[in-house]
Amino acid sequence: MTTTEPELAAPSVRQLVLLSIPAVLIGVVSALTLWLVEEVAALIDDGVWTALPKTLGVDPSSGWWIFLILTVTGFAVGLTVWLVPGHGGPDSATTDLVAAPLRIGVVPSLALAAILGLAGGVSLGPENPIIAINVSVLVTLVGRLWKAVPPRLVMLMAASGTIGALFGTPVAAALVFTGIVAAVKGGGALWDKLFLPLVAAAAGSLTMTLLAHPHFGIPMPAYTHVTGWDVLAALIIGVVSTALGLAGAVLFPLVHRVFHALRHPLLVTLAGGVVLGLLGALGGPITLFKGLEQMGTLVVNRADYSVGQLVLIILVKLVALLVAAGAGFRGGRVFPAVFIGAAVGTLAAALVPAVPLPVAVAAGVLGITLAVTRDGWIAIFVGVAVTQNLLVLPILSLAVLPAWLMVTKAPEFLIKPATVTPTSPRAAGGAGR
């Protein structure tokens, strides 16, 4: 949103009520799009990771199969970015969670690239592409059918509806958008600005709940009493997890430059797929995909993993996130970061059994999520959502403070335009993005 755009007028109660109708529709459509993308990805996922190996009589968890599928995925995404009109949209490494609408012609190729990555086991989530898809489609659609709704407002409602659907609750959208809408000029009081995005988020989260029953929490031992030692443990784990995320942020531009030095988009993602395949073979199936289901498996079955194995899983997943995000795949960085944070917490609880598991996991998730998103509210929310325990909330509210001091002036987990290596127009088939 640029500063040259006119201010949004402060809405009246009547306007808020009337605009709630498109807000609900935008939220529902946002959830339906997310559900459709994930369903298509799940069908392909089932084909390449379950049906095909069963038909061939091979073990889908074997290292060679993981390597093969991720290499093929890199090739398929590379073909999409190279040849399909729209070229997969902008490199996800260079985009924030909420960005300006894309040309509508870019959307199909972005959706295809994102679906292939999700199904193929790439360590990225759906959040960046699906928000970009919904914002672009809905700004275009509402602009033609409902011209009285300002495009910036449609953009906010579409992004909010998508975030509500992603997390299964409008609370996540409220926290993310508190900072965003507060910076929007005009529009009345903060809750005047938040009202319509929250309507969209509620509609999106309810629709997704009815369709797919998203569940972010992990079954954990009961935690009923806060102690000073728990707070100290959370502070330490949060700092360590934040430092791990910042180490990734420092290395991210280097990883991006190394892969994009190949210049041709097919070679970039193919090389990324090969490296991801090697990493997957090393870390095993637990280190694949966006990490939401794998996070639950890791924490619930934590007794099956030694300290050394947990360290390996953390390192492999962090490198896989850097490679996936840096090698031209389309996807978000939040979900795999949450997996890493949960693994850090599980490791901490294994090293010091006196630390309650919910505290350790919540602090681990908070630290690296903060490093990746630069948003304290969403980091606290995800930490609480993963543990499903409100007693960790005051602990995380303290743990976020030293973590924020670490990230506030540190490098972002984002490639700035000046550091992007341009892809040769000839290598990209002569088509601009």
Descriptive terms for the model:
15 helices, globular, 433 residues, mainly alpha, disordered N terminus
Q: What does the model show?
A:
With 433 residues, the chain is an all-alpha fold. The protein is built from 15 helices and no strands. It has helices spanning 13-56, 63-83, 107-120, 127-145, 151-167, 170-182, 190-212, 228-260, 265-283, 292-300, 307-326, 334-351, 357-373, 376-387, 392-407. Helix 5 (151-167) packs across helix 7 (190-212), helix 10 runs parallel beside helix 12 (334-351) and helix 13 runs antiparallel to helix 14 (376-387). The longest helix is centred in the N-terminal third of the chain and has 44 residues, at 13-56. The chain starts with 12 loop residues before the first helix and ends in a 26-residue tail after the last helix. The relative contact order is 0.15. Residues 1-6 and 421-433 have low confidence and may be disordered.
